[in-house]
Amino acid sequence: TITRVVSSGELSALNVSSPSPTGVYLSTNSGASWFKSATLPGSGQTAGDLLVVGNVVYVLRTSQSTGTNAILYSTNNGTSWVGGTNFPNSTPLTILATDGVSLFAGANTTGNIWRSTNAGISWDLVGTGMGNFSNGSTRSLGGANGRMIAAMNTGLYTLTGSGTNWTKIST
After folding, report:
1. What is the pLDDT of residue 156?
2. What is the pLDDT of residues 102-147, one digit of tens each?
3. What is the DSSP letter of 87?
4. CB burial class (10 A; 0-12, 13-18, 19+) of residue 96?
5. How far apart (Å, rounded) are the C-alpha atoms in residues 111 and 130?
6. Three-class SS of residue 3?
7. What is the DSSP string of 20-60?
8. Of 151, 160, 115, residue with least CA distance to 133
9. Which partner from 19, 47, 137, 165 sits 20 to 30 angstroms from 128, CA to CA?
10. Is the pTM above the cut of 0.85?
11. What percent of the chain has pLDDT over 90?
């Protein structure tokens, strides 16, 4: 089962959850041919959401355990994967997005949202379900031109620029 397909220019990525061989597959020729990336580091790690920005592929781990990175990225077409920093261990992330300037990751169970301003090397918490989103959980993220929109079960919120003050724009 293919669970996600994303692309940016000629680089595309897809996640295969079954049947075997599962994993992240990449194409460098607009989908004409595909190859399996290196196995994600860690024991029994599986991919969740994917994001391609330029020549970088980002992968959320769905089977993350203590001491592992929640988000991995590859700058060499999946030959190797590096983990971003500043996530608490076992953070249940489910969504990746970009606003064209920064990267964002969301957790639908907690409503927390993190932002990376350095291409995924490190991440900072910029919104919490309890604080910014009226006890909400993250359903979807999307953005463009430096503006992120978060669809929460409590409404739509927007964040512009480098701040952390989300504005509710709809219920």
Report:
1. 94
2. 999 988 778 889 999 999 998 899 998 888 888 888 899 999 999 9
3. P
4. buried
5. 7
6. strand
7. SSPEEEEESSTTSS-EEPPPPSSTT--EEEEEEETTEEEEE
8. 151
9. 47
10. yes
11. 42
Which amino acid, residue 106?
G
Cα separation, 47 vs 57, whole angstroms: 12
Instruction: Using the CB atoms, write b or e for 24-57: b if 16+ within 10 Å.
Output: bbbbbeeeeeeeebeebebeebbbbbbbbbeebb
pLDDT value for 43 = 62
- Residue 45 confidence (pLDDT) above 80: no
Which single residue is written with the structure tokens 């379900």?
129
